[in-house]
Amino acid sequence: MKEKMMEGFPPEMLMEMMPECLEMMFAKLSPEKRSQLTKKLYGVLSKQGGAEMVKGKRKGLVVDDRIEELIAIGASVTANCQPCLEYHAGEAKKLEAETEDIQKAIEIGQMVKKGAMRKYNEFLSEFFK
Fold it and tell me: What pLDDT, on the 0 to 100 scale, is given for residue 14?
């Protein structure tokens, strides 16, 4: 059926229409569905050798803006930066991050900070021995 729909359209014409079609589709999708579609499109690009052009010239996993903000939340907690945490939590909410996702990012930041502090304390206790 898909092949039948595309019959008669030259590839150049389809390529010109694709950004507008994707924009219309993405506007109607939930964040979860947008993420799923992005991963699927990235998979297609990977198979066709065009994945390195996604998001600049990076190869590998493409991280969306919402995930970047969640990572920044965890880093803010680890760095004890209250203004950073407030800013990135606000940005994550604007990008429709769930409260549970923000809480999980905070918990992960706390775990990293605790682990780092434990190891640093071990180092200090051995420092003058």
Answer: 65
